[in-house]
Design a protein that fits this description.
By secondary structure, this protein is α+β, with helices and mostly antiparallel strands. The chain has one domain: Muramoyl-pentapeptide Carboxypeptidase, domain 2 (2-Layer Sandwich). Helix content is about 40%, strand content about 10%. The chain has 7 helices and 5 strands. Strands 1-2-4-3-5 form a 5-stranded mixed beta sheet. Strand 3 (about 185) and strand 4 form a beta hairpin. The longest helix is centred in the N-terminal third of the chain and has 17 residues, at about 50-65. The radius of gyration is 17 Å and the shape is globular. The model is unreliable at about 1-25 (pLDDT under 50).
């Protein structure tokens, strides 16, 4: 019996785990890499211990497959919550409520069509944050993360510089961001934010005037 349960859990993991291949200013900006506890191994453990988690991820992945978006960013990264999950006593992974899934569609299309052609593959560091976690993470009260419009990203390619990343993503946003209703924010290092909840831009302090797209300061 235990062997059958173990096999079923491994089979679920094989199906669900992909192969490795308004302003949002908050203290999340201090974390340019995945927070401890949010690795793919942590995700696998989170998935394996809960049939509810497995079914939620299965349904979400099926939804993205139907939209042609399941391969833009690994699905397991799209359920990372906040880099501050531990300090906030929150879940490290959470599938957004189903009634919000459509909100991420245009954001992922912008990532696929404009961001990745500019800077290459990107990794999602923080995506959906429920109301309590958003408050604890010092997210803006109207943060697009709360509604599953937003994703904080970093380039996968270690050769991408901050200046190069900003200049190319700003150019993509300037040329095509309006068509996606895209918001674009830059934090410290290589971490940046995109959403599809309003065509706008901002800098590390959350103000539009300090966006490097506006100032031309890419340092």
């Amino acid at each position: 019996m235990l062997n059958r349960i173990g096999f079923a859990a491994l089979a679920a993991l094989a199906f669900l785990t992909p192969s490795i291949a308004s302003a949002q200013h908050s203290h999340e900006s201090a974390a340019p890499s995945p927070a401890p506890g949010q690795s793919q191994a942590d995700y696998n453990a989170w998935l394996a211990r809960s049939p509810v988690n497995r079914e939620a991820v299965r349904a979400f992945r099926s939804y993205l497959d139907a939209q042609g978006l399941a391969e833009v960013i690994p699905v397991w990264q799209l359920i990372r919550t906040s880099s501050s999950w531990r300090q906030c006593g929150a879940e490290r992974f959470e599938v957004a409520p189903q009634d919000k899934w459509s909100n991420i569609v245009t954001t992922l299309r912008f990532v696929r069509d404009e961001v990745e052609p500019a800077v290459g593959r990107v990794e999602a560091l923080s995506v959906y944050r429920n109301e309590g976690l958003n408050r604890c993470s010092n997210g803006a009260p109207a943060s697009a993360h709360r509604l599953f419009f937003a994703v904080d990203l970093k380039p996968v390619d270690p050769a991408v510089s901050r200046a190069g990343m900003i200049s190319r993503v700003c150019a993509a946003h300037r040329s095509h961001g309006g068509a996606y209703n895209a918001g674009l924010g830059f934090y410290s290092g290589l971490r940046f934010h995109v959403d599809s909840h309003g065509f706008r831009k901002w800098g590390p302090d959350g103000r539009g005037a300090t966006s490097p797209c506006a100032t031309g300061n890419y340092a």
